[in-house]
Here is the input.
Amino acid sequence: MTHRISCELAEAPLAPGEVAIVGAGPGDPGLLTLRALSLLEQADCLVFDRLVSREVLALASPKARRFYVGKASRCHALTQEQTNALLVRLAGEGRRVVRLKGGDPYIFGRGGEEGEVLIAHGIRFRVVPGITSAQGCAAYGGFPLTHRDHAQSVTFVTGHRKGDGELILDWSALAVPHHTAVFYMGLANAGTISRQLQAHGLPASHPVALVERGTTPEQRRVITCLGELVATIAREGLTPPTLIVVGEVVRLADTLAQPAAQVAILAEGEIRDRVGERVAL
Here is the structure.
């Protein structure tokens, strides 16, 4: 039995010709916001990314038309320009459009770029934030992103370089103690991340967490260190989407890890937690 969410959540219903840019969260449908769910139920058309889970898509009306515009490295269903054009076209046809993005649309989601295009074409739109991949992966991985004793700041960083260019970041600002650096889309550049952070002062023993497919039934968490980062990725066969979290907070993973935090996804499948050896939670 499903419970439909009222669209009266302190805002007007989605209007014909309007676009809602919505954060779908990191994967677990239980982490979707009520406002996001309300808009999903109203949508005539869904335009969604690769990282939007099937469980989240299933919450939309079965009558809604679905348009996949996912992007992986060097493999795009549609270019960003084509996605922009699709949103403009659907809104121009009077459709109620929900643009679904994994995590939060304004954190490495290119939601700002799409909003600019909609404004340029006189199209009304709204934005609904979502739980970021960093938040979800950390919580389900058993460690915080900040902690008074271990990390007084956190930085979200893109680990993806444009085209064949160099990954240019402020490495000295990232390689500081009592700080957490979260790298999105960084798996292919793990070697650069490891080398640069060590070259700018972090020890090879500095802790790193790798969380693959966080908050989903296929989640894997692997604890390693900067000096072993590349070898660990190869040995464990980790694939995108995998978040790289660098910082002392990772040392709390075993202390704070709790089965209760995993109930929502354990019901759908076993989560393998690898810390040296494979352990079933």
